[in-house]
Amino acid sequence: MGRAVIETLDEPAVIDCLEREGVAFERFGDLLHITTDTPDALVQRLVAACNPSRLSVRNATLEDVFLRLTGRGLKD
Predict the structure, then answer these.
(1) Domain range spanning residue 50?
(2) Model confidence over 12-43: pLDDT tens digits?
(3) Is 26 helix (H, G, I), strand (E, B) or coil?
(4) CB of 52 within 8 A of CB of 45?
(5) pTM to 2 decimal places
(6) What's 55's domain CATH number?
(7) Within a domain: residue 76?
(8) What's the per-residue H, E or C state across 49-62?
(9) Long-range contacts made by residues 39-46, C-beta under 8 angstroms, separation at least 24?
């Protein structure tokens, strides 16, 4: 598990761009999660290539690990 999670909206154009750029992502509801050890560099790359309407970066949490392993949140 990386140290940061980049979140962006689940938009077809962004998904196409991520796939074209070879960036792995996971869908959770209306969000896409991208786990990375290099968030600054990846954010710059995604903004330049994908032009997402929304993008946020946060530290990975234990809930992110749980989501990755089970596909559902702790409160589900």
Answers:
(1) 4-70
(2) 999 999 999 999 999 988 999 999 999 999 99
(3) strand
(4) no
(5) 0.82
(6) 3.30.70
(7) no
(8) HHCCCCEEEEECCH
(9) 39/3, 39/4, 39/6, 42/6, 43/6, 45/21, 46/6, 46/8, 46/17, 46/18, 46/21
